[in-house]
């Protein structure tokens, strides 16, 4: 649902099904993808269910929950545990999960390394395996601990307070905003998400700003490593991913993302990059049900998708709203929610 979920009466079920889902997500194999989708569907249905589930009939009456998942839920309700989790927790999954904590490593690569005999991060640091890693993965391995820990909100603020004036020194008319978990008011952040745009009404855009900013931030030793550069830092829409740090000695590396977007899509971009991802999924679903399509560029109408490949657009449609978050909420008939309310 679109409302704030505080107490879920079936939280234990949600937690254990999520744990099982994560185990399947770490595996390869033709069925795993479908299992993950099935569990995802079940989890969101259970999350939205307002009372404690009691009987098998009640469980199976919920849309999107089949026999097999129903049995697992009933096991959790009866015993507080789920045996299947233990069975799915193989050495391969455990090791593969550790590898997937390396920036730039996904399931396929982690399973390949496991198959090659590699069992630990220390193994990866040995000469025998080190050549398997790309440059970015080596950075991910070097700062494994930093990248996998969250920073206090205050540290995100301190970094942003350093970066914003440097951006404004390039062009005082830039719109520079911090997004993601920080904008939602979270006490800790996995990374810093910074959005940059500029009103082009005076004939100037933010084209080229990202490149200049990154150069300055590298010189100031605030941005320390690049992880993913955009194709062109001159495009109005670009994504940069990297690592940064506070200048104080002993500061940890932190993940940072810069997102530049055209001025007229700022509302849709604010909405998308504020998240959270579950909230975004619910908003997209709502849009789709009303015949719209929602992405980081706007709320679209008249989008025609290829029925055999939903990701392929036969018609890009036309923009319905994109300049403010409020108008997107309004058109979707969702009461406006403050960023701190947009949480799972
Ligand atoms: N986002 C999304 N779907 C994704 C990834 C991101 O909708 N698969 C959107 C919602 C996120 C926002 O982008 O809130 C920023 O992405 P982050 O991965 O930085 O996530 P958060 O900032 O929300 O959390 P964290 O504190 O872990 O960075
Ligand atoms: Mg973030
Ligand atoms: Mn991010």
UniProtKB/TrEMBL annotation:
Catalytic residues identified in the record: 72
Top-level lineage group: Eukaryota
Shown part of the complete sequence: 462 to 805 of 808
Protein name (database record): DNA polymerase lambda
């Amino acid at each position: 649902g679109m409302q704030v979920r505080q107490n879920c009466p079936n939280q234990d079920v949600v937690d254990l099904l999520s744990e099982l889902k994560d185990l399947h997500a770490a595996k390869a194999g033709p069925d795993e993808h479908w299992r993950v989708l099935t569990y995802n569907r079940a989890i969101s249905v259970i999350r939205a269910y307002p009372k404690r589930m009691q009987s098998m009939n009640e469980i199976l009456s919920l849309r999107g929950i089949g026999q097999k998942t129903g049995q697992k839920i009933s096991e959790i309700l009866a015993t507080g545990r789920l045996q299947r989790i233990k069975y799915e927790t193989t050495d391969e999954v455990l090791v593969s999960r550790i590898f997937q904590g390396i920036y730039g490593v996904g399931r396929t690569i982690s399973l390949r390394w496991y198959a090659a005999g590699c069992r630990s991060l220390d193994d990866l640091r040995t000469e025998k395996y080190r050549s398997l890693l790309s440059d970015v993965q080596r950075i991910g391995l070097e700062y494994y601990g930093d990248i996998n820990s969250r920073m206090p909100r205050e540290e995100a603020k301190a970094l942003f307070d350093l970066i914003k004036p440097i951006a404004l020194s390039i062009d005082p008319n830039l719109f520079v905003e911090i997004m993601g978990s920080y904008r939602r008011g979270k006490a800790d952040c996995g990374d810093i998400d910074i959005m940059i745009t500029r009103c082009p009404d005076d004939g100037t855009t933010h084209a080229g700003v990202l490149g200049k900013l990154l150069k300055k931030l590298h010189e100031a030793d605030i941005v320390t490593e690049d992880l993913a550069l955009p194709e062109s830092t001159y495009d109005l829409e670009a994504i940069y991913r990297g690592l940064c740090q506070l200048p104080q000695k002993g500061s940890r590396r932190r993940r940072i993302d810069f997102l530049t977007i055209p001025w007229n899509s700022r509302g849709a971009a604010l909405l998308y990059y504020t998240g959270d991802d579950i909230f975004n999924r619910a908003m997209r679903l709502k849009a789709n049900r009303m015949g719209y399509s929602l992405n980081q560029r706007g709320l679209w109408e008249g989008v025609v998708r290829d029925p055999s490949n939903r990701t392929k657009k036969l018609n890009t449609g036309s923009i319905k709203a994109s300049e403010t978050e409020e108008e997107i909420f309004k058109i979707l008939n969702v009461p406006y929610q403050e960023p701190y309310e947009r949480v799972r």
